Every structure is written in structure tokens, then in C-alpha cells.
Amino acid sequence: MSVLVYIEHAEGKVKKTSLEAVSFANALAVKTGEGDVVALALGSIDQAELAAVGKAGAVKVLQVSDARLDAGVIQAHATAVAQAFEKAGASTVVLAKSSLGDAVAARLSIKIKAGLVSNVVELPNTDGGYLVKRSIYTGKAFAETSLTTVNKILAVKKNAVDLKTDGGDAAVEALEVSIPDSDFASKIVSTERATGEVLLPEADIVVSGGRGMKGPENWGMIEDLAKTLGAATGCSKPVSDMGWRPHHEHVGQTGVKVAPSLYIAIGISGAIQHLAGVNSSKCIVVINKDPEAPFFKAADYGIVGDAFEVVPKLNEALKAEL
Amino acid sequence: MKILVCITHVPDTTSKIQFTADNTKFDTTGVQFIIGPYDDYALARAVELRDQTSGKLTVLNVGESETEPTLRKALAIGADEAIRVNASPKDSFFVAEQIAHYAKEGGYDLILMGRESIDFNGGMVHGMVGEILGIPSFSPVMKLDLDGTSVTMSREIEGGKEVVEASLPLIAGCQEPIAEWKIPNMRGIMSARTKPLNVVEPVSEETQAVAVKYELPPAKGAVKLIDKDNVSELVKLLKNEAKVL
């Protein structure tokens, strides 16, 4: 028996959220006695980078180095994972919740007849059953979900476990899979991705601006602060609706849900729909000139003041300290 | 062109989330139910595509009789007919099996729904239906254009998007800005009353992952306010107290 982890990579690096999934699987295997943690990487990626997945808790990495899998072709990925699942003799698949991970997991659950739980926030409770705690109502509540199938898939939310870093190197093995051409019938013809920046859904620190920023021309100070902190930038819905910032930066109920260690909200009043996207953050700082802004009720720390005055000062203070 | 849109019947986004019966049931007291916001985007785009192709648009919900007003609203927005699968939606797999069965029976070219329901946030039903039916599935889709049987989509990925080309039939989980939400007009509301709403029975009872108990997150402590002229105090707190720097 083993636990199989579907790992994603971008720009030659295994994603941090995937490494967290490996650590989750490692803790799961220790708890349930499910045997080894085997990671699965699809597409072209450097072997040394894959060996380092061992530090997070995998003993082996299976690599399907078919270049057609470099792009996230959903059906082909699902077929490849299903075949790796059989070959590894696995009973559980763990993966990080992501745009591609979700799409692949859903198809995989049908292929391998596995019950699937998404947004998993902690290790399952296996005392006399298999209860998985997941985040629901966009972070406003949790549900204990009873998984009753033999095969299982857990799509893990960011920060569900601490990243393990003390494992050894993993052995990298090539894996052959046979994927029908029909799985490649849909074509990804182009990809636009912000490069060299911290990606919002995966960021440890997020700096977001709202209508209080008064216009897109004032985003320089948000970006400066983000740069100092190594943070991703986000925004509220009105800001992306007005076209001040791109849609993929919209944080909230119908936008990106983030779960960083630190979320800094600048000039955002804190509508309930925005809070839904940030309530999994570990620590929330709110900067707003309106002391009655509802966001203060959801914050850990707050500064009542004009963003145009406070943010540059905060940036200087951080630069001095970091 | 036959289009199926699957909608959820969910608490309004401003609802207070509470539970009853020893935390095993959602408390519906004072809660207003709506078409899932993501489903609403899917429906809006489907109305446009139906008009573009002079096709037929069916809307489907898996739910008990209390979801009928939500289905009527979808009819008022522009769907031609509605199907209610008469069962409480027990888990993603259960819902996917019902949808796959009735989708196959109806022979739809395009199936749209929201990227996820806003109650359970699973985001899995479209992929499961796609796999059961053996057709491609895509999510979250922000743009979807039709040219004959060719489909061009824009799918959101972390920090960006990818453009995908595929052919009908297919299934997509949608999100903004695929279309603007449509508000029903008086004519739509009047005509919705007489459009067909067929109630059908579930085809399978199998479940895999049922929620058995709920809990609310621990209450947040009071905010610690820092003077705007003393921002270095905030930096210290973030570093030493919150330990997030």
C-alpha cells in the first residue's frame, strides 16, 4: 500500500502547495500505516528538483516525462494519475487544491472509484471511521465528512499541515503510461501567466487594495509594500470590476480565496463577500481611514488612518526591520 | 443546439451561517436562498448562446420541492424548461450521477454550471459528470465562445489564464466574467409561470463522502489598534507577537 501524491510544477520548480501535499501525505501515512508516500510528476522537470521532493516526505517520485503533459491537459493528466495509482498499488491520492488539481481530481475520482473530499484542512480522524474535516461556506464553517469508499482522494487546502523539510532525497523512477490520443483532443493554445511574481493563490503574504486607493495610478505604493514583503498583490471586487486591476487579482467570494500567513487590506471596507475570500488567513491587518469599516471586526491588527500617509511609512518601517 | 445548465439552490452570500440539531443541519432560519452566483454566470452565458444558436436551454437542479422557486427564477431569466431531480443533494458524487443520467437522456451539446457551489465549495461535480459521460470538462472557465461545434475557452490558472480549444459536446464550470448576470424582467417572470418544470426521480442512491457534522470557526478576538503615527509598533507586533514576518 502507498499514498500517491499528484504534484504540480511551474517554471522548473515543484509548487510549494504540492510540497505541502507531500508533507500531508507523509503525516497521513504515519497515522494510518498506509506505507510509503509516492509522488507523481507529469511532464518535463529536472530530476534533481524531483529528488528534493523527498525532503517534504516522499520516498519515491514517479516521473512520466511525456512532454505532451507539460501543459495541464485535464483528461490526459487524469488518465496518467489513474494508471500511476494502479501501478503504485495506492489506496489514497493526496493533492493540493488548485485550478488543475481540482479538475484532475474530479475525473480521477470516477476513474478509480474513489470518494473525494476537497478543501481538506487537517489530517482525517480514523478512530472507527474516516472523517475528514473540510472548509465549507467559503471558510465560514467546517464540515466533518464521512468517506466510505476503499479508495480515497483528498484535495488539501493551503496551510493544512506544516511543510516538512527534514526528509532525505527521493528516488526518481521513470513511469510509462499509455494515454489515448482522444485525451489530447482539447488543446491549450496559449498561456498567460504573471511570471517572476509571487502568485496570489499560493502566496504567504498578500497585500490588497480597495476603492480607498482612489485609482489604478496609486497602486505603486501597494506594489512597493508587496515587494518589501515578498508578497502577492490582490484587490477587492469593485477594483477589478472597474478595471483598475486584472480579474485574477480579485480576492473574495467569487474571486480568488487566499490563505496566507499575513493579509494586509488597504482601503477595503470589508464587505462580507470580500471577507469570505480572506477568512482563512492566519493574521489580518487592516488599514482604513474609516474607523467604522466592518473589516476592523475581522482584523487582528488595525490602523485607522489615510492609506496615502500610512502605507509609505509602513513600507519604510518594514525595510528598516527586515 | 441543446444546452443544459445545472444550478444550485444556496444561501445568499450575506447569510449568517449557523447550524441546528446538534450541529448536524444547516439553520435555514431567516436565510434567503438564491441561484448559486457562479451558476448564475453560467446561466447568463447559456441564455446568450441559446439566442445565438436558436437552440433550447434546459435548467436542472438536484433538490427537494423547496428549490422550485429558484428553478422558476432561472426560467424567468431565460431558460426554456426546467428539470428538478427530486432528492436532497447528498454529496458531489450523488449529484454528478443524477446529472450525468439526465444529461445523457437529454442529449445535450453543451453542459454549463458554476465552478463550485457556494455552500460546500467542492467544485467537483462538472469533472465527475464529464468523466461519467466520457466528454471533456473544464473549470474555472471565464470566457466561452462557440463557432459551430468548435469551442474557445479561457480557463483561469494560478496567476493567469490559458486559452483552450475544444469541440462539443463538453462540460464547463463557469465563473465571472463569462457574462453579466441577467435580472429577470416582467415578461420573463410572467412566462416562467407556464414554462414546463418536470420533476424526475433520482436514478441512484449511492454516496461516497457525506457531511455528518458541522462547526463554526473559533470567534475572532478584538482587533488591536495601532496609532497611525507609530507604524513601527505594528512591524514589531507582526514579528514578535503574530510571528508572521
Count of spatially separate domains of chain B: 1
Arithmetic mean pLDDT of chain A: 94
- The rough form of chain A would be described as globular
What's the rounded overall pLDDT mean of chain B? 96
Helical content band of chain A? 25-40%
Structural class of chain B, please? alpha/beta
In whole angstroms, how far apart are the ends of chain A? Answer: 46 Å
Helices and strands in order:
The complex is a heterodimer of chains A (322) and B (245).
Chain A: E1 2-7, E2 9-10, E3 13-14, H1 16-32, E4 36-42, H2 47-51, E5 60-64, H3 74-87, E6 90-96, H4 99-111, E7 114-120, E8 131-136, E9 141-147, E10 151-156, E11 171-174, E12 187-193, E13 205-209, H5 220-229, E14 232-235, H6 237-241, E15 262-266, H7 272-278, E16 283-288, E17 301-304, H8 307-321
Parallel strand pairs in A: 1-4, 1-6, 4-5, 5-11, 6-10, 7-10, 13-14, 13-15, 15-16, 16-17
Antiparallel strand pairs in A: 2-3, 8-9
Helix pairs in contact in A: 3-4, 5-8
Chain B: E1 2-6, E2 9-11, E3 19-20, E4 25-26, E5 33-35, H1 37-53, E6 56-62, H2 68-77, E7 81-85, H3 92-106, E8 110-114, H4 125-133, E9 137-147, E10 150-157, E11 160-167, E12 170-174, H5 186-192, E13 197-200, E14 209-215, E15 224-225, H6 231-241
Parallel strand pairs in B: 1-6, 1-8, 6-7, 7-13, 8-12, 9-12
Antiparallel strand pairs in B: 2-5, 3-4, 9-10, 10-11
Describe the structure.
- Chain A is an alpha/beta fold.
- Chain A has eight helices and 17 strands.
- A seven-stranded parallel sheet of chain A has the order 7-10-6-1-4-5-11, sandwiched between helices. Chain A has a five-stranded parallel sheet with strand order 14-13-15-16-17.
- In chain A, helix 2 (47-51) links the parallel strand 4 and strand 5 (60-64).
- The mean pLDDT of chain A is 94.
- Chain B has six helices and 15 strands.
- In chain B, helix 2 links the parallel strand 6 (56-62) and strand 7.
- Chain B is α/β, with parallel strands linked by helices.
- Helix content of chain B is 28%, strand content 31%.
- The N and C termini of chain B lie far apart (55 Å).
- The model of chain B has no long low-confidence stretch (mean pLDDT 96).
- The interface between A and B is large, with 92 and 78 residues.
- Strand 9 (141-147) of chain A pairs antiparallel with strand 14 of chain B, so a sheet runs across the interface.
